[in-house]
Protein backbone atom coordinates (compact mmCIF):
# COMPACT_ATOMS: atom_id res chain seq x y z
CA UNK A 1 0.00 0.00 0.00
CA UNK A 2 1.14 3.46 -0.88
CA UNK A 3 0.08 6.83 0.38
CA UNK A 4 -1.41 7.59 -3.04
CA UNK A 5 -3.87 4.71 -2.48
CA UNK A 6 -5.67 6.79 0.16
CA UNK A 7 -7.67 9.99 0.14
CA UNK A 8 -7.57 12.53 2.96
CA UNK A 9 -10.39 12.26 5.48
CA UNK A 10 -13.31 14.54 4.78
CA UNK A 11 -14.93 16.79 7.34
CA UNK A 12 -18.27 15.30 8.29
CA UNK A 13 -19.41 17.96 10.71
CA UNK A 14 -18.51 21.51 11.59
CA UNK A 15 -18.27 21.88 15.35
CA UNK A 16 -18.79 24.96 17.45
CA UNK A 17 -16.60 25.51 20.53
CA UNK A 18 -19.57 24.54 22.70
CA UNK A 19 -20.12 21.27 20.85
CA UNK A 20 -16.40 20.47 21.09
CA UNK A 21 -16.52 21.12 24.84
CA UNK A 22 -19.54 18.84 25.31
CA UNK A 23 -17.99 16.04 23.23
CA UNK A 24 -14.66 16.20 25.07
CA UNK A 25 -16.40 16.30 28.46
CA UNK A 26 -18.61 13.32 27.60
CA UNK A 27 -15.69 11.32 26.15
CA UNK A 28 -13.91 11.72 29.46
CA UNK A 29 -16.99 10.63 31.40
CA UNK A 30 -17.44 13.94 33.20
CA UNK A 31 -20.73 15.53 34.11
CA UNK A 32 -21.14 19.29 33.88
CA UNK A 33 -21.02 19.41 37.68
CA UNK A 34 -17.73 17.48 37.77
CA UNK A 35 -16.19 19.69 35.11
CA UNK A 36 -17.37 22.74 37.03
CA UNK A 37 -15.73 21.51 40.22
CA UNK A 38 -12.45 20.66 38.47
CA UNK A 39 -12.25 23.84 36.39
CA UNK A 40 -13.64 26.43 38.78
CA UNK A 41 -16.21 27.49 36.17
CA UNK A 42 -19.79 27.25 37.42
CA UNK A 43 -22.10 24.57 36.04
CA UNK A 44 -24.54 27.15 34.63
CA UNK A 45 -21.65 28.75 32.74
CA UNK A 46 -20.55 25.36 31.38
CA UNK A 47 -24.11 24.71 30.26
CA UNK A 48 -24.22 28.12 28.54
CA UNK A 49 -20.87 27.42 26.84
CA UNK A 50 -22.02 24.03 25.60
CA UNK A 51 -25.26 25.55 24.35
CA UNK A 52 -23.34 28.30 22.53
CA UNK A 53 -25.20 30.90 24.57
CA UNK A 54 -21.96 32.26 26.03
CA UNK A 55 -18.66 32.68 24.19
CA UNK A 56 -15.77 30.66 25.54
CA UNK A 57 -12.96 33.20 25.37
CA UNK A 58 -9.27 32.65 26.00
CA UNK A 59 -9.29 32.42 29.80
CA UNK A 60 -12.14 29.91 29.99
CA UNK A 61 -10.57 27.87 27.19
CA UNK A 62 -7.29 27.72 29.13
CA UNK A 63 -9.04 26.59 32.33
CA UNK A 64 -11.13 23.95 30.55
CA UNK A 65 -8.27 22.71 28.37
CA UNK A 66 -6.13 22.07 31.43
CA UNK A 67 -8.84 19.90 33.01
CA UNK A 68 -9.66 18.12 29.74
CA UNK A 69 -5.96 17.68 28.90
CA UNK A 70 -6.20 19.19 25.42
CA UNK A 71 -4.66 22.22 23.76
CA UNK A 72 -6.90 25.31 24.16
CA UNK A 73 -7.08 25.64 20.37
CA UNK A 74 -9.04 22.37 20.28
CA UNK A 75 -11.79 24.19 22.17
CA UNK A 76 -11.52 27.62 20.59
CA UNK A 77 -11.09 26.53 16.95
CA UNK A 78 -12.62 23.04 16.60
CA UNK A 79 -13.39 23.51 12.91
CA UNK A 80 -9.98 24.94 11.91
CA UNK A 81 -8.93 23.57 8.53
CA UNK A 82 -5.19 23.87 7.86
CA UNK A 83 -5.72 23.10 4.17
CA UNK A 84 -7.55 26.43 3.79
CA UNK A 85 -4.62 28.48 5.11
CA UNK A 86 -2.92 30.38 2.32
How would you characterize this protein structure?
The protein is mostly helical and 86 residues long. It has one domain: lambda repressor-like DNA-binding domains (434 Repressor (Amino-terminal Domain), Orthogonal Bundle). 51% of the residues lie in helices and 0% in strands. The longest helix has 12 residues. The model has no long low-confidence stretch (mean pLDDT 90).
What distinguishing features does this structure have?
single chain; 86 residues; mainly alpha; 434 Repressor (Amino-terminal Domain); 5 helices; 0% strand
Q: At CATH's second level, what is the architecture?
A: Orthogonal Bundle
Helix count equals: 5
In CATH terms, the superfamily is lambda repressor-like DNA-binding domains
Uncertain regions spanning at least 5 consecutive residues: none
What's the end-to-end separation, in Å?
A: 31 Å
Element pattern in H and E: HHHHH
- Overall radius of gyration: 15 Å
- Structural class of the helices, strands and pairings? mainly alpha
Provide the CATH topology. Answer: 434 Repressor (Amino-terminal Domain)
Which term fits the overall shape?
Answer: elongated
Strands, count: 0
Tally of distinct domains: 1
Mean pLDDT across the residues is 90
**Considering DSSP H and I runs of 4 or more, what fraction of the residues is helical?**
40-55%
The CATH C-level name is Mainly Alpha
Give a quick account of the main beta sheet: strands, pairing sense, barrel closure. Answer: none
Percentage of residues in DSSP E strands: under 5%
